[in-house]
Automatic annotation (TrEMBL):
Keyword check for 4Fe-4S: no
Cellular component, GO annotation: plasma membrane
Keywords, sorted A to Z: Cell inner membrane, Cell membrane, Membrane, Transmembrane, Transmembrane helix
InterPro entries: PqiA-like, PqiA-PqiB_transport
Compartment(s) where it occurs, according to its Swiss-Prot or TrEMBL record: Cell inner membrane
Species of origin: Geomonas silvestris
Major localisation: membrane
Official protein name in the record: Paraquat-inducible protein
Keyword Thylakoid belongs to the record: no
Stored Pfam families: PqiA
Transmembrane portions of the chain: 46-66, 98-126, 147-169, 175-194
């Protein structure tokens, strides 16, 4: 049997979105519930594309203040400075901390932006019912899910520095307003990736194969 000969949904199988139990539904058009947790069963996540777009647009909006506002404020008896994410990266690079600067730039600027762009590409391709490179698009989605948690690295660094420096009495470190916006961007992109249903990538291929069999 060809791997595209039939989808699980066409065979009457439904995966519970709460406990992930796969069940067979005798009448696909009738309401069904998970035999284990009682949740309502759906062939696809309800409102997946709409909800994903909402989280994604909010993420794009907050990405701007996250990078323009102050991320970290550091002060001592002789100096006081405010840094955005980018100015912090530049400062680390100039002071010789090239490795840390590269990690912060990749985790705090590059990865969130690539996540937003990747999810946008996936959503547009799903809405256009594209059949282009479904395996690669599915791998792209899995990668977005995998690297998402590392985007919080900058917040962890600020929190750790603040906790360590507060042990002394001659310096202070505190998070700026960008930390809230940046954390919101990370959370919103995580919600967007969770709400996106990768099975929508494959649906046009199943329907295309079904039309081909009908024509034959």
């Amino acid at each position: 049997m060809s791997p595209l000969s039939g989808s699980a949904a066409s065979l009457g199988l439904r995966a519970c979105h709460v406990c992930n139990l796969v069940s067979r539904v005798s009448h696909p058009r009738q309401a069904a519930h998970c035999p284990r947790c009682g949740a309502h069963l759906h062939a696809r996540k309800v409102g997946s594309v709409t909800s994903c777009w909402a989280f994604l647009i909010a993420g794009y909006i907050l990405y701007i203040p996250a990078n323009l506002l102050t991320m970290m404020e550091t002060g001592s008896l002789i100096s006081y400075r405010k840094d955005t994410i980018m100015s912090g990266v530049v400062h680390l690079w100039k002071t010789g901390s090239w490795g840390i600067a590269a990690v912060v730039f990749i985790a705090s600027i590059l990865i969130p932006l690539l996540k937003l762009i990747s999810l946008t590409v996936l959503l547009i391709s799903v809405q256009r019912r594209s059949t282009w490179q479904p395996r690669q698009r599915t791998r792209l989605y899995r990668m977005v899910e995998l690297v998402g948690r590392w985007s919080m690295l900058d917040i962890y660094v600020v929190t750790l520095l603040a906790a360590l420096v507060q042990l002394g009495s001659l310096a202070t470190v505190k998070a700026g307003p960008a930390a809230v916006a940046f954390g919101a961007v990370v959370v919103l992109t995580m919600f967007a990736s969770l709400k996106f249903d990768p099975r929508l990538i494959w649906d046009p291929l199943y329907k295309e194969r079904g039309h081909e069999r009908d024509a034959q």
